């Protein structure tokens, strides 16, 4: 009896232990499931938050989604309504496919892809029908040979055309559609008797989808590629000016330390030139798409969009110089504080005047009015650069061979020289390694002035091509000439007034 009692106790203990292990395993599995679910929900919430912020920052993207939905809902009526479905046959799906493929964010991109699709489809369809007609007259044996050879030649030629820069920039999608359409029509025409009817239905549905895309894209809150390019160029000019002035101020003006709150904003302004360096592809793409757009807003038909690309190239040339300038400033080489202090006022003047010129150019493009201040600001910028150049030319370079050979003579004459000569001798003892950084910064500033002049020339060319409005000073000059007062008489009158006041 005792042995049976012990076996019963052990069996009960084993059952209790197994049940406890099972409950622990269940709890662990439930905990893991809750952890995985919570992680997925957390990631989903972060994704929704980022998507919401993206839509809030640029509501046009949310509007674009609605426009695509409106276009697809409208073109799907050709399936839902029987009269429309009977008019296009079973090829209504091509209209829906056209909307999905062609509809883009900007109106220029939509028009570009629409025109490319229509032209590519039409040309390929006519050629395919012509080849099918010729092949059908040649007999059953030569028909597949003619179709295959024509497919090889035309597809190869169209593919090679996509490597040509002009065609790739404007008609790359059209060449792709040409290859696709010609292949489908020519190959399917070998087994289909009513090829002309099929091509007619498909062409009509593509025209319907393309027309609907253009109408929706240009009527419902249009996003113009030209406007995007215009805003991008003017914004990059402001960023370039802020970066130039910020890096010069940071290097030469050490009196005021930036506050902790404004430190992040200052750093963003300082690195704004990087947006200019990375905007080449966007500018070229926007300029190509803007050519397809009709006149809109302040932009007339055949607006010189290519000139904005030239302005961007001039800005990148200046931004690369600023990049080298910031790299030189952040180097670990020691700098002579005396020379840096002597050059600070002139260098900051050069940087400030250059930034003023760039900001004035941004204002000129933004207002589409020729500025009367640009010439004055450019003159001040060049005069400041000339002052800096004269300072570098007049600063003594004591590491030349003649100065080293005459080092003993200067030491013997030091006792009898004046205090000014002592200062010059002290300057001559500065090592080259201590002045090379500040001299390099000054030379880069002078080079930046030259590249800013390139931006000025590009903007002036844009103002002439786009026919910007004349500055207000022209009207004032016309007003003075109408009153028959010459400039000499005006100067005499001003001089007389000053004498009367004195």
From TrEMBL:
Gene Ontology BP annotations: malate transport; monoatomic ion transmembrane transport
Domain of life: Eukaryota
Transmembrane segments: 93-111, 118-135, 141-161, 173-192, 204-225
Pfam families (UniProt xref): ALMT
Membrane topology, from the record: Multi-pass membrane protein
Subcellular location: Membrane
Protein name: Aluminum-activated malate transporter 10
Organism field: Clitoria ternatea
Phylogenetic placement of the source organism: Eukaryota, Viridiplantae, Streptophyta, Embryophyta, Tracheophyta
